[in-house]
Amino acid sequence: MSVRVGVLALQGAFAAHEHTLTALGVEAAQVRTPAELADVDALVMPGGESTTMSRLLETSGIFDDLKGRLSEGMPVFGTCAGMILLATDVLDGRTDQRNFGAIDLTVQRNGYGRQVDSFETDIEVDGFGTPFHAVFIRAPKVVAVGTGVKVLASHDGVPVLALQGHVMVASFHPELTADDRLHAMFLKVIGS
Ligand code: GLN
């Protein structure tokens, strides 16, 4: 596949995403500037701290360009903080925190509790023959799902992996395990 997949590298767990994408055989590139964003066909938005990322997206000048690319249909995969930034509604966010409204979800920041409440668990993902080991770190909790959103995995009845058109989100950190199946799934979203 000749696509170039960007990994938003302003802050957070971007290096592991880059590693997984490269291991899957695609060209991965760190994105820190509007010019670097213009040079990629798709984007991964990593976990980290959504309030900090929101601020850095604005100071780097990327926010508006990224909003435009998302509305044009650029495929994107947001994990944890990335999911928060892509959601339509964020509960318990900071008042100055901005989000893209690219997937019809309401998420509650730190909805599973604080750092000490971080946990790991096996989840069943639609279409996977075996469970996926999911690492949740101060994860956002999905509290409402719009009708156009396909839920691909849930934990305790709460959606944790979802897709709407070209926008894929996970409330956990798929880049922190050796399992590359969700990144491979994103490559299929890009290809379709
Ligand atoms: N709680 C963080 C936030 O609000 C997200 C945590 C994570 O990405 N691991 O952005």
Structure description:
The protein has a single domain (4-191), classed as Rossmann fold. Helices cover 27% and strands 32% of the residues. It contains six helices and twelve strands. It has helices at residues 14-23, 34-38, 50-59, 62-71, 81-86, 181-191, and strands spanning 4-8, 27-31, 42-45, 76-79, 87-91, 103-108, 119-123, 132-136, 141-145, 150-155, 158-164, 167-170. The strands form three sheets. A seven-stranded mixed beta sheet has the order 2-1-3-4-12-11-10. It has a three-stranded mixed beta sheet with strand order 5-6-9. The longest helix is centred in the C-terminal third of the chain and has 11 residues, at 181-191. It binds glutamine. The site of glutamine (GLN) has 11 residues, from helix 5. Residues 47-50, 80-81, 84, 109-110, 137-138 line the site of glutamine.
Label this structure with key terms.
192 residues; alpha/beta; Rossmann fold; 7-stranded mixed β-sheet; 3-stranded mixed β-sheet; 32% strand; globular; binds glutamine
